[in-house]
Here is the input.
Amino acid sequence: MNGHPTFGINFPIRCIEAIKQRRCQFCWQPLGRRIGLVVRPADVTAGYVDEPGMHPECLDYSVAVCPMLNGSMQQYRTRPPAAAERVVSWTPERAGHAAEAFDAWYITPSGYEIAYGPTGRVLGISLADVPVLMKKPIRAAAKPRLSDEDADQLRAVLDLLDPTD
Ligand SMILES: [Zn+2]
Here is the structure.
């Protein structure tokens, strides 16, 4: 926002404003005839995305500059990035987890519906029964990191296979 990519950073009020006012989360201009959503499998299960939509070209740019979306980051950060480097994704619930798969969904304004929680709180943009013009994979999920225990076991097995022993 304000010309700086902030994908994945929670600014709840700004996010809710963007969703309600149908603004692009990237450039803050009103959304046009094609709306790009960044969707994870978990969002499909939940039935909504909590990130505002984007112009298709803004989505492309976000993918180019966001290390989580362009696949250069394999794991969510464990701590929030400093204000100066807010280009990096961070959400407390996702901290330290392996990167998930992301798809881009392109919808039209008529398919744009706000998802509300039971108390009337804005949850995000509804994915349930939304007519999707196109779905495009952005990145695959990262492989989960091995736990120390699993790594030790793997090392033990590899030692057994080592012909130099
Ligand atoms: Zn935009």
Observations:
- The longest helix spans residues 148-161.
- The helical segments are 12-20, 41-46, 56-65, 148-161.
- The radius of gyration is 19 Å.
- The pocket of zinc ion is lined by residues 24, 26-27, 29, 54-55, 58 (CB under 6 Å).
